[in-house]
Amino acid sequence: EAPWLHREIATRMAERLVLMKAQPQTVLDWWARIGGGHAALAAAYPKAAVHAVETSAVARRLVAQAPPPWWRRVWQPAATLFSEDAVLQNGAQLVWANMVLHHSADPGALMAQWRRALAVEGFVMLSTLGPATLSMLRDIYRDAGWGEAHAPFVDMHDIGDMLVAAGFSGPVMDQEQITLTWASPEAALVELSGLGVNAHLARHAGWRTPRWRQRLGDALRERATRADGRIALGFEVVYGHAFNPAPRAKAAGQTEVSLDQMRAMVKSTPGA
Questions:
Q1: Which of 122, 111, 116 lies closest to 48 in space, CA to CA?
Q2: How many C-beta atoms lie closer than 10 Å to residue 149's C-beta?
Q3: Residue, of 172 and 57, whose pLDDT is higher
Q4: What are residue 174's DSSP bridge partners?
Q5: Are 238 and 131 in contact (CB under 8 A)?
Q6: Is the pLDDT of residue 79 over 90?
Q7: Smaller CB count within 10 Å for the chain: N or C?
């Protein structure tokens, strides 16, 4: 099951779908297992075919073995489970990517993959973690000389620029701050470990010891405890969406346009 934070953010991201006029018939739920957006997508688009896309064979097996939720049996058409390299090209009206981007070592390449999966005028809806996330934890690691606590998080303006560079149009970005609290440092560390591993290339090599974990828990207790005694850490959540525009013929002495591109341009022309 996806972490609670991912499911909560999926619900908040789905609230932004009311801004979109399109009613997708085919939705790709990218990394569906960790994203936890199936219930939100079912409520937003009960008649759509929502297909899961997973990056690893292990995740695909877990998704395939999970019993289908009751809402899928009642509302939704049959769905398919895809690997990332087997997604149908230009076949979806929505790529839903909840809490995916910050796990990728090459966000630009992942965005290009999303665009290839989308039909013309289809759109991507994404959420990810911004650079203000876990600033207290980074301070603790830095002051103790423990290396990097996590891979870098990308600013929302840079994400918008990356979407444009990948060929998307009209990116709209916003963000919010969320504070999570726990009864103890141990509970905080358990939930943080469930959100993902430290993918930073300069992370500590090898296993950490129980003594190190105790020192980290003590540092959290000393520096992140609120007046009510709970451990508090902040997260910056970035939301965004962008569209896959119709291809444009490039001005040149000789221009070659494929039949599929010509059909897409004709469909996007008013009155055509």
A1: 122
A2: 20
A3: 172
A4: 239
A5: no
A6: no
A7: C
